[in-house]
Amino acid sequence: MSPVAPEESNTKAAGKKLRVLVVDDQPAVAEVVADTIQYAGHDIVGIARDGMEAVTRAKELHPDLVVMDISMPRMNGVEAMKAILKEGSTKRVLLMSGEYRSLGVTRDEMMRNGASGFMEKPFNVTELFDMLDRWAAEESA
User: Fold this and answer.
1) 27-39 average pLDDT score
2) What's the CATH number of domain 19-136, 2.30.40.10, 3.40.1190.10, 3.40.50.300, 3.40.50.2300?
3) 100: how many CB neighbours lie within 10 A of its CB?
């Protein structure tokens, strides 16, 4: 699977190249997310398949951003985010989910617990590019 980029994309418009850890228990989804982020001009430093692996990989890799699914085995994305942020392994976590409402998790709860952003699946490529551009510019400031 490859990303479908909007024609008006301002990919990597300004700022540094972000180092990103992608976390999703569905390999095809992880691949699409990673490909889209790379298309935007950023580096994928790793891919994890569940929340526990995400915590371990974030400690090892210290990415600028973790893009993580919420519904995963062993440790969900919200709990993994809390652990990653507590460890100081990254300062930005973008949570993604297509079923967060059925998990009893609200956007407000995600943001209160430290999420830098949230996107519903299937995700909007332009919205993702805008977030990446903003965070890359902040990293450069």
Assistant:
1) 97
2) 3.40.50.2300
3) 23
